[in-house]
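User: Okay, second chain of the day. Same drill as before: sequence in, structure tokens out.
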Amino acid sequence: MAVAQKLDLYKLHKSEYVTPKKPVFIDTKAAKYLTIQGKGEPGGAEFQAQVGALHGVAYTLKFASKFAGRDYRVCHLEGLWMGPKGWDISQPPPKEWRWKLLIRVPDFTTEEQVKQAIAELKKKGKAPAAPKVKLATIDEGRCVQMLHVGPYSEEVKTVEQMMAAARDQEVKIRGPHHEIYLSDPRQVAP
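Assistant: Same drill. Structure tokens below.
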């Protein structure tokens, strides 16, 4: 009996997940994500609860899909960050940041599957924030992207390089700051 190949969204969309050391422009296509929103600094109690809920729903969906014969790799956590006055988060204190956490899911994921995953988590008494998880399609289009390695306190230098690249190309920033976490910051050195 043949075993179905596991879907890897990073390989399928590798042009959207580049990690250059200098800013580059990429074109993204509309994609489905599990999302959850909140406010405050990363690492705070609400943030941690929301991350737990998002991962809980993501893995519950993945295992239900695997059981149904469509296995896939769960994607990394991503985040959209906004300050009180828009995309620039360099000025306000972190307690004023608004964020939407994301995990990309396959295009075949449905609202009904998400509802079932949330119901299963509720039944087990896990991830109390899971009912806040939504399925959304995000279409960002052209983006400037760059890899940041190091502590969050030095991230502003990376963002400044991307902003300079956008200005040089006469590109106007129109969306939130989007981060893709390649490693879990709780498990690696700064």
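Strands lie at 24-27, 31-39, 77-82, 98-104, 134-138, 142-145, 177-180.

User: Thanks, on to the next one.
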